[in-house]
Amino acid sequence: MKQLANFMSDNAAAPCPELLAAMAAAAPAQTAGYDSDDWSSRLDLLFAGLFGRPCAVLPVATGTAANALALACLVPPWGAVACHTEAHIQVDECGAPEFFTGGAKLLLCPGDHGKLTPPGINAALASHRGDVHQVQMAALSITQATECGTVYRPNEVAALAAHARAQGWRLHMDGARFANAVAYLGGDAAALVADVDALSFGCIKNGGLSAEAIVLFDTSLADQLRWRRKRAGQMPSKGRFNAAQIIAMVEDGVWLRNAAAANAGAQVLAAAAADRLLYPVEANEVFVQLAPGEADRLRAQGFLFYDWGAAGSNEARLVVSWDTPAAAVERLAAALAAG
Amino acid sequence: MKQLANFMSDNAAAPCPELLAAMAAAAPAQTAGYDSDDWSSRLDLLFAGLFGRPCAVLPVATGTAANALALACLVPPWGAVACHTEAHIQVDECGAPEFFTGGAKLLLCPGDHGKLTPPGINAALASHRGDVHQVQMAALSITQATECGTVYRPNEVAALAAHARAQGWRLHMDGARFANAVAYLGGDAAALVADVDALSFGCIKNGGLSAEAIVLFDTSLADQLRWRRKRAGQMPSKGRFNAAQIIAMVEDGVWLRNAAAANAGAQVLAAAAADRLLYPVEANEVFVQLAPGEADRLRAQGFLFYDWGAAGSNEARLVVSWDTPAAAVERLAAALAAG
Amino acid sequence: MKQLANFMSDNAAAPCPELLAAMAAAAPAQTAGYDSDDWSSRLDLLFAGLFGRPCAVLPVATGTAANALALACLVPPWGAVACHTEAHIQVDECGAPEFFTGGAKLLLCPGDHGKLTPPGINAALASHRGDVHQVQMAALSITQATECGTVYRPNEVAALAAHARAQGWRLHMDGARFANAVAYLGGDAAALVADVDALSFGCIKNGGLSAEAIVLFDTSLADQLRWRRKRAGQMPSKGRFNAAQIIAMVEDGVWLRNAAAANAGAQVLAAAAADRLLYPVEANEVFVQLAPGEADRLRAQGFLFYDWGAAGSNEARLVVSWDTPAAAVERLAAALAAG
Amino acid sequence: MKQLANFMSDNAAAPCPELLAAMAAAAPAQTAGYDSDDWSSRLDLLFAGLFGRPCAVLPVATGTAANALALACLVPPWGAVACHTEAHIQVDECGAPEFFTGGAKLLLCPGDHGKLTPPGINAALASHRGDVHQVQMAALSITQATECGTVYRPNEVAALAAHARAQGWRLHMDGARFANAVAYLGGDAAALVADVDALSFGCIKNGGLSAEAIVLFDTSLADQLRWRRKRAGQMPSKGRFNAAQIIAMVEDGVWLRNAAAANAGAQVLAAAAADRLLYPVEANEVFVQLAPGEADRLRAQGFLFYDWGAAGSNEARLVVSWDTPAAAVERLAAALAAG
Q1: Which of A252, A279, A305 is the last residue of a domain?
Q2: Is residue D106 domain-shared with residue D198, that is, in the same domain?
């Protein structure tokens, strides 16, 4: 019987042991619920230390909730958010940004390798007049690492931030795979968010279980976010379990170790398919141009993965998780190298 | 040093061991996320067995989300929901029903012991004309057990359901403490929901951790709920942990055992304060008229609880959880008996 | 054949000749539409003169739109508006405030003669905790003249405004019959809005045709209102007709003459039913306790009016318009006097 | 002094005399307001006669309101509307569709001459998976005449309608210049809406004053629209003036005469610039490629018009209204011919 090896997504991986231990430690009955427990109250300082500046941190149940709530704090109902054509907020959240903002619009910008650039944004928005008959540009949302598995360099983020600031826009970062980006760049998280107003700090894809964190660097928005989160049904009474997960993830560098492990696996695959990568491999996702029939052959060997791109394009997405067995990665690398 | 005994709320209690075990069993990496895992796919049948009729079951992160999403499926933006003046959806959800429904209104009905009755509803809505200038009555929402710790009998629910049906309204039940109600009535859950369109099935207050379940008995609403849940950021990729909790809660009767334990503790307190109860004690909440100064004396002995009612009213709410130590209950009962 | 005399409402009265003339004058083709025409651009200064302080004025199509858009500028989606139990925004706008605000709640306060008072508001909101689990009180909305045909005195408005300011709430005035209130009080409009943030300035019930005005005294909200108005479909390209109506109404005192005429008719009726008025008659509405059978007898004589209050209460509402013939008023007065 | 000739837009033109007369006729006081007057109650039958099938017709204040309310009846909050990249609902309504629908998305489809085609829609939506993580395609919205001044032929509409039906989508037509399209095609309005679910029937640009009509051919949506319209502040008490305008427009063919006049003017301009038209001229808008400096020269002669396209593209939009003087058209034609 063939041995299954799962490269579908990192979003159904196991939680890492540090998080399970933290949740067990949070199990005993508490006298205070909601955000008043001993774990939730530690989050702000923990992340302030991580990022080197004050912030307000609130856990939510999903990345979609993190993105949509963050955007709702940054953008009015008549506002617009510029984002990449392939952004998760556009193509994978069933209209959550529109729901949470009260009807703001996403204005789509193409960009190589999943990245936005100031000139690319300018070109995409050239026909947006911004008069009273149109929604008002209010924020930029970028994904780090991108939906193409690439990573914005600090100077690229800084250029986008400067562009946004110059026009009075806020900057949101969808960091569902932020850990992978930081790990790729060598671990300096602060540099990557120096000009960011709100970060969706992902945990679930990186060995987490049931919590992501919204990190507000504009702490004047914290009260608003608390109210929005409550009325969105995202403020659990036993929120200590969410906070405990996030603490366990960040406190001792688990997040960077997990991400580094996943990234390393992706590099093994990238090396094996170096001549047919669709994008540079910088995080834990590998997009490969397969030969006709190759997808079937790989699946016949037990490899699970998603087709990508247009029907018939023979493109594949291969995702490595923090816990993908090295043997599975080596086996897939060999299969790719065999073509 | 005094020994603390916590009667604040059941919402910060420990998760019960059966659920922790179920979550551990769900930990290994899966190939399928979202609702496609082996746990999520079992929920519909499990609850159909429990309630004796088909239903669609979707986990969410909080009771607020369960209530608001359920109501959004039952009521249009121009609709109205009749509920008790003290209903959780009115006083404790920061406008979540209004947010999720797109602006529906709650019409408030007083009622003894936290209960609605057809005549009470009629009286409260007497001046609601229902013409095009007003929101359209579309649903009734009742809480079981009620916010006063009382329990609707099956015939009371049936009378409300008949009243609703006669006027074309849907029936929602906020079952944050549904287990306590069923345990109190002897365990026949099916009878209590025979005419209900949507039930918010509570777990978290009853030994759960991070999941409640929306049970749709009108399964024609299931697709709508899936889309609404996704765009509300309530569809986690590792949803197996939520489903596993709910399965563990229901499968072997854990929910009724936990609820019975909490109810029993409440009865001990009720017996000790029988002559000064504000409402009949039928679930796990005890509302007591204290003497002037008594609250301070109780707190000095280490008992934690909320004041209730208007300032200066000397009313207290005492909540027993599934895991409240019997010794703590006995100690509080003795203190209450001592007056 | 009996002669009909219409006391149903002032909202289907004829437009007054000054407005029809103004619309005719605005008919010729213009080069600029939306708010760029010669009429729309005059509104701010015209009302600044009327009220003695700067304001931003934008016409909308209905009183419901005026109220809901004004409130949306004053209150966040998680906010609450305190208003009278009988307020038009609560009972006659089909949830428009909830729709436009994105789900804010109205918190209802009873009050004699349709009026709110600080102690009455305090009592009604006594149980509103305002913690993160509840909507946040953000504004007070009062109706001038009230839904009971009474008029707030300047010191009453000032007391409410001081109460609101002390707690950080904004103040909205629904002035569907503002002209009647000003006329009753002797014409000093400025004193009545000295502390108001946003006024719905009514024209349609007072001889207008198709426009009401939102008057923002907090002009920092003007841009927001423009965007909200546009996306609400309330910014007509030929907006000059709306602006021209409003100018014609205000410029030469037409609004006060029309209102005075209607008020005078109401006083005639009030005198004839002085011993059975439900509320003091201070504007153009008369609420009368009829005898059993009297409503039928009045209708048999051709008088048209609405029953009021609960079924069987024999209460009637009689509304006098700016153009109600004096003979009709006299005839109804005589009929009422006859009992 | 130069003589101004206005080709800016048809949206600030004079109302036509027939409408002004109808409004004057509706001026006298009525006993019934809202939709109960003698004019409003005639609309359904009048349009049923015009289109040869039952429909429900409700006036609103603007085309934006007509479009957004119609779409809200056709599309759920988690729905999507496919429309042209240049559609008015996308670029000129400040997010009204998103606001009224509760957050639905517009999915943009390019298309020559402002027109959609089934293959073009298929191509644009090729990457839209439509799973639970995405908004659900629910309607197609087309503009007739298009934003490029072209006109869908009956068979083109039928092909789009068949495409929509086959996939369970509804069909909305933005008919801000519907009259121009019908006039161009020879007057058979019924053929153009044979498969349409909801039509925004434009009047204002065609000699109207303050009312557009929503025509629902799916009359099962009529109640919903009434409630939505009321809560949108689009149901005026003196709605008779809106209904009277629409009746006057349609009853004796005024709408087609006005549109034919405007179309004829556009043909004169088209003939004069036949070799440099950007799109076929089929309605009352002419898009012309100007030479460098030509725009300035035209403006120096008193011609008013908007630049079009990208900055520096030397494109111009010339709009002829029902009442644009023939002399002005001839003068502009001569100027264009002179190059």
Answers
A1: A252
A2: yes
Q: Report the pLDDT averaged over residues C105-116.
A: 98
Interface A–C counts its CB contacts (< 8 A) at: 42
Alpha-carbon span B133 to C88, nearest angstrom: 10
Give strand pairing partners of C140. Answer: C82, C171
Distance CA C143, CA C165 (A): 18
Considering the domain architecture, whether residues A35 and A102 belong to the same structural domain is answered as: yes
pLDDT for D1: 52
Mean confidence (pLDDT) of chain D:
96
* Residue D77 touches partner B, C-beta closer than 8 Å: yes
Task: Please judge whether D133 and B230 are an interchain contact, meaning their C-beta atoms are less than 8 angstroms apart.
Answer: yes
SS3 at position B245? helix
Q: Tell me how close the Cα of D93 comes to any Cα of chain C, in angstroms.
A: 6
Mean predicted confidence (pLDDT) in A101-112: 98
pLDDT value at residue A282: 98
Chains that touch B (3 or more CB pairs under 8 A): A, C, D
Is some CB atom of chain D closer than 8 A to the CB atom of C176? no
Give partners of D (≥3 CB pairs < 8 A): A, B, C
The verdict on A135 touching D (C-beta cutoff 8 Å) is yes
Assess whether C86 and C224 both reside in one domain. yes
Q: Is the pLDDT of residue B56 over 60?
A: yes
Of C80, C99, C133, the CB nearest to B103: C99
Q: Average pLDDT, stretch C8-29? A: 94
Residues B92-114 have a mean pLDDT of 98
How many angstroms separate the Cα of C79 from the Cα of each of C97, D229, D337?
A: 11, 24, 61
Instruction: For residues B147 and B208, state if they share a domain.
Output: yes
pLDDT of A269 reads 98
Task: Return d(Cα B63, Cα A99) in angstroms, integer.
Answer: 20
Q: Residue C302 contacts by C-beta under 8 Å, 6 or more apart in sequence? A: C2, C3, C4, C5
Would you say the ipTM is above 0.85?
A: yes
Partner A contacted by D131 (CB < 8 A): no
Rounded to a whole number of angstroms, the distance from the CA of A104 to the nearest CA of chain B is 14
Of D209, D235, D252, the last residue of a domain is: D252
pTM (two decimals): 0.97
Which residue reads 């170790």 in tokens? A257
Sort strands C198-201 and C170-175 into parallel, antiparallel or unpaired.
parallel
- Give the domain CATH number at C186: 3.40.640.10
Pairing verdict, β A306-308 and A315-319: antiparallel
Question: In this structure, are B239 and B268 located in the same domain?
Answer: no
CATH of the domain at D278: 3.90.1150.10
Q: Cβ contact (<8 Å) for A232 and B237?
A: no
DSSP state at residue A103 = S
- The C-alpha atoms of residue C271 and residue B68 are separated, in whole angstroms, by 52
> What's the pLDDT tens digit per position in A166-225?
999 999 999 999 999 999 999 899 999 999 999 999 999 999 999 999 999 999 999 999
Total domain count, chain D? 2
Residues of A in contact with C78 (CB under 8 A): 224, 227-228, 230-231
Q: What is the pLDDT of residue D317?
A: 97
Cβ distance of C77 and A102 shorter than 8 Å: yes
Chain D interface includes C29 (CB < 8 A): yes
pLDDT of residue D14: 95
Give which of A35, A36, A78, A135 to mutate to test C binding, by max C Cβ within 10 Å: A78
How much is the average pLDDT of B166-172? 98
Q: Which residue of C has its CA nearest to A36?
A: C132
Q: Yes or no: say if B145 and B282 are a contact pair by the CB < 8 Å rule.
A: yes
B274 and B310, same domain (yes or no): yes
Domain that includes residue B324, residue range: 5-12+255-338
Answer yes or no: do B222 and B265 share one domain: no
User: Which residues 283-312 on chain B approach chain A with CB closer than 8 angstroms?
Assistant: 304
D49 with D163, same domain: the answer is yes
Task: Output the DSSP codes for C258-272.
Answer: HHHHHHHHHHHHHHH
